[in-house]
UniProtKB/TrEMBL annotation, chains A, B:
<feature type="domain" description="Acyl-CoA oxidase/dehydrogenase middle">
    <location>
        <begin position="169"/>
        <end position="278"/>
    </location>
</feature>
<dbReference type="Pfam" id="PF01756">
    <property type="entry name" value="ACOX"/>
</dbReference>
<dbReference type="InterPro" id="IPR013786">
    <property type="entry name" value="AcylCoA_DH/ox_N"/>
</dbReference>
<dbReference type="InterPro" id="IPR046373">
    <property type="entry name" value="Acyl-CoA_Oxase/DH_mid-dom_sf"/>
</dbReference>
<dbReference type="InterPro" id="IPR009100">
    <property type="entry name" value="AcylCoA_DH/oxidase_NM_dom_sf"/>
</dbReference>
<dbReference type="InterPro" id="IPR002655">
    <property type="entry name" value="Acyl-CoA_oxidase_C"/>
</dbReference>
<dbReference type="InterPro" id="IPR037069">
    <property type="entry name" value="AcylCoA_DH/ox_N_sf"/>
</dbReference>
<keyword id="KW-0285">Flavoprotein</keyword>
<keyword id="KW-0274">FAD</keyword>
<protein>
    <submittedName>
        <fullName>Acyl-CoA dehydrogenase</fullName>
    </submittedName>
</protein>
<dbReference type="Pfam" id="PF02771">
    <property type="entry name" value="Acyl-CoA_dh_N"/>
</dbReference>
<dbReference type="InterPro" id="IPR006091">
    <property type="entry name" value="Acyl-CoA_Oxase/DH_mid-dom"/>
</dbReference>
<feature type="domain" description="Acyl-CoA dehydrogenase/oxidase N-terminal">
    <location>
        <begin position="84"/>
        <end position="163"/>
    </location>
</feature>
<feature type="domain" description="Acyl-CoA oxidase C-terminal">
    <location>
        <begin position="536"/>
        <end position="672"/>
    </location>
</feature>
<dbReference type="InterPro" id="IPR036250">
    <property type="entry name" value="AcylCo_DH-like_C"/>
</dbReference>
<comment type="similarity">
    <text>Belongs to the acyl-CoA oxidase family.</text>
</comment>
<keyword id="KW-0560">Oxidoreductase</keyword>
Amino acid sequence: MVDAVVRSHTPATSKHTPAGGAPTAPHSADEAQAVEASEPRIDLVTVNDLLLGTWAATRREARELIKDPLFWRVDGLPMAEHRERALAAMHVLVENNGSRRAFPEKFGGLNDNGSNIAGFEELVLADPSIQIKSGVQWGLFGSAIYQLGTEAHHDAWLPDVISLALPGAFAMTEIGHGSDVAAIGTTATYDPDTDEFVIHTPFRAATKEYLGNAGLHGRAATVFAQLITGGVNYGVHCFFVPIRDAAGADLPGITTEDDGVKGGLNGIDNGRITFDQVRIPRTNLLNRYGNVAADGSYSSDIPSPGRRFFTMLGALVQGRVSLDGAATTASALALKIAVTYANQRRQFDSGAGTPEVVLLDYAKHQRRLLPRLAQTYAQAFAHDELLRSFDGVFGGRTDTPAERENLETLAAALKPLSTWHALDTIQECREACGGSGFMAENRLVGLHHDLDIYVTFEGDNNVLLQLVGKRLLSDYAKQFKGKDAAALARFAVGQTAGKVFHGAGLRQLGQNVGDLGRTARSVERGLRADQQHELLAGRVQQMVADIAVRLRPASKLSPVEAAAVFNENQSELIEAARAHAELLQWESFTDAIAKVGDEGTLRVLTWLRDLFGLWLIEKHLAWHLIHGRLSAQRGAAVSSYIDRLCARLRPHAQDLVDAWGFAPEHVRAPIASGAEQERQDAARAYYAALATSGQAPVSEKAVKKH
Amino acid sequence: MVDAVVRSHTPATSKHTPAGGAPTAPHSADEAQAVEASEPRIDLVTVNDLLLGTWAATRREARELIKDPLFWRVDGLPMAEHRERALAAMHVLVENNGSRRAFPEKFGGLNDNGSNIAGFEELVLADPSIQIKSGVQWGLFGSAIYQLGTEAHHDAWLPDVISLALPGAFAMTEIGHGSDVAAIGTTATYDPDTDEFVIHTPFRAATKEYLGNAGLHGRAATVFAQLITGGVNYGVHCFFVPIRDAAGADLPGITTEDDGVKGGLNGIDNGRITFDQVRIPRTNLLNRYGNVAADGSYSSDIPSPGRRFFTMLGALVQGRVSLDGAATTASALALKIAVTYANQRRQFDSGAGTPEVVLLDYAKHQRRLLPRLAQTYAQAFAHDELLRSFDGVFGGRTDTPAERENLETLAAALKPLSTWHALDTIQECREACGGSGFMAENRLVGLHHDLDIYVTFEGDNNVLLQLVGKRLLSDYAKQFKGKDAAALARFAVGQTAGKVFHGAGLRQLGQNVGDLGRTARSVERGLRADQQHELLAGRVQQMVADIAVRLRPASKLSPVEAAAVFNENQSELIEAARAHAELLQWESFTDAIAKVGDEGTLRVLTWLRDLFGLWLIEKHLAWHLIHGRLSAQRGAAVSSYIDRLCARLRPHAQDLVDAWGFAPEHVRAPIASGAEQERQDAARAYYAALATSGQAPVSEKAVKKH
């Protein structure tokens, strides 16, 4: 039981209490390998600090607060009660200064954007409904007032927004227009006779839809509408519109409807709002980026309507940023539950007369959980980078148009991958826990229900990736202004990604990746870090170049034909964007490792990074083979490298999920509480006692042999 | 609008009413292609008959019954009310003879096994809780009495089982043992002094768990326990044990607990049962396969304990069979909703000045939905084959040990693929419908919640595939008794799958596939049917042969080492089983096409089959490349073949989902009701009227040009 001895060593310096009971003694199918792999250990404190990232202090503060059960999701609670519970929890957040971090000192805030997002993300551990309802109130409704409005708006409304005296809805999406915000139908027509805007829903498809706080609690809404003055449509702008009176009744001209039961997040009162010629003061236009004077004349500091529109939307990027972080934390929680259970639950003996095998000793079970754990680590590191970019731009330190654009592209790249990963990981964990995983008390199904919508809200994932793809194409095209298709194709061949994308403002591919040499020794007979990087980066570059070549003729076609050519390449453009995001995650992981001093931590995290890299390469193995990046022989070996890494990492799996530092109040799932270990121990004790009692029945087979 | 004209042609002979409103006029991004592809049309009646299969009459009867809203799932219903509603619906089923089809004429039944399963499967359209609670009562609890008991048991209990006067639980799974039934801990010890069995739960892990009807409604249970008599354990047998009195209180020695809220299926009262020395008459042993006489002596017609155990389990295969069918029907329903919506919802204009594009005209959207539709078709045909096999065995016409084993292997192969496909398809449809897809009223989230557990109950999918893999290996090994590894490897190379598996009892690979020549012309420049078949079948054969070679040395190793070698190959063995199941589905699809006389139907379904085949090949493209089955050049073309097929099938998508024949009472989702089309039409009418009124605001850009 060498392995058990190693496992019971918990660093004395650990500052987190491992949830899920005492460290377990995994029974390894390959003892020799486990012993070999167990020599290094991660330092839990070091890794916990790495995972919690730049705003670790805020995350720990938020985690302390949500140890209070009033924040916890109650399964099976009727919708109406869940909504009231979520609202009540938000009031407690306010009392604990959880709502003001992003706002100016003037309003009691900290003006600390990164910390604000970090704090909200942790709420996903308590109840995703609270996370998202908070996001609606302070991240969308409040941010619209703060980011799109000016001082008078801030003074008038922000104090009540922060204190939750004024709950509000963020009315952008319409029944007929989700991702395509520019095409919304709601109109805001200026009437100079009364100095008012008239907000109107001209047809049913223009009804505002799916708005949190619109179903019940909201008193006002930030409404996106086509601004029309003097017979000219100046495009989408945002307006502050009261919707309910103090008693909760719809104001004149306002019709709200309740969306009713949803697939999850039922603590949020989503609903619809229809406007029938609703008049609001002219000054309710949130006029930071565009204003209408009393005489109806329009002015803006941003002359280009397109750039103005995207500037306004970009001011609200924090929704995407926070979903990336919350999805990553939720994935880690699911893995904490499934790995803990898999280290305690036994099923089938191996046919070798040994005790029943714990689930995580099955190679397939390792394959199901460990690569997903590797990606979750990569996401945590990539997210911290995203959050630092966000904090730089919104804190004003790096607030340039180029940095804003980079931030938006990075958010659009990372949010799709992490939110899809959350659903995939939570589902795999659910299945890996069998029937237990389907019980609401074990959290996994609730997490899946609640996070389901993350993949299509705050930007549909496919639409976001398409945006990223277009950005990659346009960066690429900038290199070849005026060159013809053949020259472009010739150029693409053999270029490093870093050169092609140089100056593109995105992470400079092929650069800034920490110390590849130092970690390169990790996989014997495998693909070294530099080889992983070359494959991942080369794929992005080649895919973009290939699509650019195929789209090149479109410039000479009619608009209809050009649209058809683009449509033919849509799937691949989305794949290229995904490849780009994967590369960014891999690079973030590699950079994070470069900071590690502790030798055991470095070694284990390097294996985990290698597992992530090889998993990505395996996912796209056909591409690498077709494009001659890997020979058939080396391609065939990728899967066995992954199996090898899984076996190596298997003894570290519990450490790697414990390092997230979730307390029992965050985990809560009975199957990860140690109860399964107690049951297994009781069963083994029963059989041991029976055997020594001499009362044990003999087997039929044994009788027949006589 | 040639396309619209074609679309409005609905065959006059159609016997089903298309749900989801009138046929729509899709706007194709490539009109020429749509016109070309629209020339053939499927005949809806023909395809509906094909899809409903051998027991179409029963399916239509069941669908008529569940048009009554009392059967419909009500979203957000509190658990307690949902449970009562499901029970009430089952009483209505009884009144309409929905519970007796499988049982003997003696009890008012039809002794019609295939029809029975077909009828239950359709209930998934109403409320999966009703489907599964019915399955527990009549398919598990009732079947255990019928299949494992003898005449006295039938006479005593079946009438009340059928009438629902005696609701019961099927107590096999324990907290500590799910898939590994042989290792359950519950004991049934014979006491000759009182002529009773003593049923006992010796430790917490042996508590019966997740049992439908155990939480609340069940009055008795069929309990699986280790049969011990005369100091010998004869292995797992099944016993009839009363658990509650007429007032619903636990009987002495019985402790039931409620599982509470689950991820779905909350209309079922799952729960736990613990037995504390519960005494039942000796004759409550369901003794068809093993009996204990009054003196305690054990007898069985099946001398081998192992074969006896598997015979008893095999008698209950119908659960897996019915999940395969229900999962397929649920997938079809999800696609009906998503395709209908995608033909009506518009998002973004193409940049070509044309109207906004309907979702299904986006290449990526086609890629998301159409291959899944193709697989759903394949599953329907494969399921009918499975159901015929089941009906043959259980109806006694083909009830041989070999046929039983084949049936069990076929069920174990198909159920994992179709239940995973259901989750994947429902989720993709949910996302493809955006925010609407997350609203409970649109059905998709509820279907996902309810079907989630299908992938791990009635046999965990990975465990089932592993069983199939072992069967493939043992069939393979039979060919090479006594040959050494090298001979085996030499033999494997170049053999056709049909020869390798000849006599294996599974579907004879490479044989019985209908008329490949006739359908081979389908894909110009693509992979013909015979090429698809060769790739799919060759992959199964090669994978099994490779694993066999790698496992060969295990016979010379110690049990512990041999277990380690097997574990190293576990993932790949599961993959081989999946490849086998995929091949079976492809062959079933091809066989189904061979029966089609109508030329348009033949052509469109052949494209759909090709799409399925190519999708499978694309999924495993790296394997085909590594093993030299496809050149890099041909491999690279697979994706573009798929794109081409998607574009061809796009104008037929509505027909292909309408052909399932779901009535509005089965679909129920507002987004597939035509409401979206009405909203879109109203929006376009508004803009058209505005344009002609002369009141339309001009755009800012237009003003600036002046």
